[in-house]
Amino acid sequence: MIAAQLPALQVVMPLLAAPLCVVIRRTAPAWSLALVVTWACLAVSIALLIQVLDGGTISYEIGGWAAPWGIEYRVDLASAFVLVIVSAIGSVVMPFARVSVVREVAPDRIYLFYTMYLLCLTGLLGIAITGDAFNLFVFLEISSLSSYVLISLGRDRRALTAAYRYLIMGTIGATFYIIGVGMMYMMTGTLNIADLATLIPAVADTRTIQVALAFLTVGVSLKLALFPLHLWLPNAYAFAPSVVTAFLAATATKVAVYVLVRIYFTVFGAVQLLETMPVRGVLLGLALVGMFAASAVAIFQNDVKRMLAYSSVAQVGYMVLGISFATVTGLTGGLVHLFNHALMKCALFMAMGCIVLRIGSVHIRDLDGLGKRMPLTMAAFVVGGLSLIGLPLTVGFVSKWYLVQAALEQDWWPVALLVMLSSLLAVAYVWRIVEAAYFRPVPAGAPAVQEAPVSMLLPMWLLAGACVYFGIDATRTLEVATNAALFLLEGVR
C-alpha cells in the first residue's frame, strides 16, 4: 500500500531526481522535473502530517530491519510539522526559480542548480524524518554540501568566498556534532534516537555524556547560526543567488533549530536537561543578545540582503528563546516561529529576487522611488517587513505574543519587555527600505522599470498573503505546534 511507503518516498523522490537533472542537463526539462518532485514532496508531507494527527507517531523500518538495530524513519508531530515547512517552501520557490535562476546563474550551470537544490531538499527532509542520530549526520552533510555549491553559483565572485567560509564553519559544526554522537554511542551502544532517550538517563551524570551534550550544542548552534556562531550567514545570504537565499533562509536554519529541539527534548528529554544543567541560562542569554546585537547591526547595513541576513540571526534568537523556556507556551512560540519566519523571510528574499531581476541591485540607494515603479513587489516586501516587526494581524505577532506569554508565566518580566523592545529595532531597519521606496523621488534619468513577471509575483504573494492569513487565523498552526510541544515535553515531565 502506497500510504505505508510515504516516509521513504519523502526522501527517495528528490534523491533520485537530483542525478536525473545532471543527465538531462537542459534547463527547461530540469526545471520541470524539479517542479513536479518538489510539489510531490509537499503532498507526501501533508499526507504524513494528517496520518500523524489521526493515528499518532509513524515508525518506518528501512529494509525491514527492526529498530534500534536498523535505521528507522520516525514521524511524530514535531517532525511532520518541519517536513511540511521544508517541502512547502521548496515547492513554492520552484516556480519563482525559473526566471530568477536564468538571471543570476551562469547558463552552463543552471542544471547544476536544480541538481543541488533537490539534493539540499533531500538532506533537509531527511534530517526531519530520520530516527537515527548518525543518519541525521549523513543528511546534515548532504544538505550542507549542496548548500555550499548553491551559494557559490552566485555571479559575484564574493559568493565563492562566502561559500568557502560556510564550508569551513559548517564542517566544524558537523565535526562537533558527530563527536557528540560518538560519545553517546560509546556510553549507550545505540544510535537510535528513541533508544538513546531511554538509555541516556542511566549515564547522564557521567562526564562523557555531559561533554557529548556540549559538542552537540555547539555543533548544531553553528548550523542554526545562533549568535555568536553566525559569522558564515551574512555573506552566504548576501552573495548567493536570490532564489538560493530565499530557500535556505526559510529552511536550513529552521531544520537546525528542530535538531536542537530533538536533542534537548527527545534524546535528553528524561534527564530534565534545562533544569539539572546550566543550559537554560546559556540559551536564554545568547538568544537575547542575538536578538538585539544582530538587529542593531542590521540597521546599519546598506545591502538589503545583508540586512535581512542579520535579521535572520535575530529571528533565530526568538526560536532559541522559546526552547529555553521549556514550557508548553514557550516551546509552542518557538515552534510556530519556525513556520512563521519561513513564510516572512522567504517572501522578503523573493522580493529582493524580483528587484535584482529588474534593476540588478539590492543597495538601499538604488531603491529610491521603487514603490511607484514596482508596486506589487514593494507591497509584498512591506507585508513581510511588518511580519518581521510583529504587527498585529501578521504571523510575527502570533510568535512574539506566545513568547511574551511564556515569559510572563514564569514571572520573567524583563525578558517579556526585551522581546517587545527588540521589535523596535526591526521597525528601524524595515523603515529604511520603506522610506527609500515610498518617500524618496525616482532619481533623475533613472531608466523605466517593469514589474517582475507573474511567475515570480505569484509565489511571492502566496507567501506574503500567508503571512497575513496565518496572522489572522493561526488556529491550525498553533494547534499543531502546541500538540508538538506537549509531545516533546512529555520526556521532560
The tally of strands reads: 2
Element string (H = helix, E = strand): HHEEHHHHHHHHHHHHHHHHHH
- Structural class by secondary-structure content: mainly alpha
Amino-to-carboxy terminus distance = 37 Å
Beta-strand percentage range: under 5%
What's the overall average pLDDT, rounded?
85
Give a short account of the largest sheet: 2 strands, antiparallel
Backbone shape? globular
Q: Reading side by side through the largest sheet, how are the strands ordered?
A: 1-2
In DSSP terms (H or I, runs of 4 or more residues), the helix count works out at 20
Percent of residues in helices comes to over 70%
User: What are the low-pLDDT stretches, counting only 5+ consecutive residues below 50?
Assistant: none
Rg, nearest Å? 21 Å
This entry's quaternary arrangement is: single chain
Could you explain the architecture of this structure?
With 493 residues, the protein is mainly α. It has a domain at 278-493. It contains 20 helices and two strands. A two-stranded antiparallel ribbon has the order 1-2. The two termini are 37 Å apart.
